[in-house]
Amino acid sequence: MAELRRFLVRQLAFLLPLGAALFALEHYTDVDFMLARLFYSPELGAFPLKSLPLLSFWGHEVARDAVVVFSLCLAYRAWRTRDARLGVTVLAMALASLAVSMLKAASAHSCPWELSAFGGDAAFFRLLDAVPLFAGSGRCFPGGHASGGFTLMALYFYWRGSHPVRARLALAAGLVAGGLMGLVQMARGAHFLSHNLFSAYVVWCVIVAVFAAYEGWCLQRAAAAARRRQEIQIA
């Protein structure tokens, strides 16, 4: 239990300042707009790569479906092998994706391609600002597509205790997959950089919470079993 507490303290010490840094990046800088302008054409009044098949089909639809299929394969393997930890990994991936989807559905922030600065008619506003009258359709924060790739980071916790090298590779793979999927959406005008960074943040927080709960349950179960054995020996 002491190790679990140390793990949670380390995670909080990492996540709290990281969350503050992400908020500052979104709220006090123009990085989102600077990057979005790289993909926006003022002459066309649109994002030229929005409907490019390489991005809209392969980078969006195929990449999304590949993550879903991979997750289902993991779930099937967990069921066939009765691997509880792998089952928890799949659960963490699903809950992380669900958390991002729920936040996105409740968001009043519109996508870049809907904003007046990029050929649309929706008003831009930052996190914690008052929602303007013409905010648009919203439902664009955090980045939903990138979250699919970021959920692969859950495999880090699956291998963390048994295969450290695999764990680090899984973490890197999740960050790269989520980053590339997020970049696809940025190039299409669907998301800002901050949308994807917050997506990674939410995904990691959910994964940490799920595995912390699982590890705590395992420790309590082991302690209860030890007490029962001790009681039997005394009796």
Automatic annotation (TrEMBL):
Domain Phosphatidic acid phosphatase type 2/haloperoxidase: 89-214
Membrane-traversing stretches: 7-25, 62-79, 86-106, 141-159, 166-186, 198-219
A Pfam entry, by short name: PAP2
Domain of life of the organism encoding this protein: Bacteria
Keywords (A to Z) from UniProt: Membrane, Transmembrane, Transmembrane helix
Alphabetical list of InterPro entries matching this protein: PAP2/HPO, PAP2/HPO_sf
Name of the protein in its database record: Phosphatase PAP2 family protein
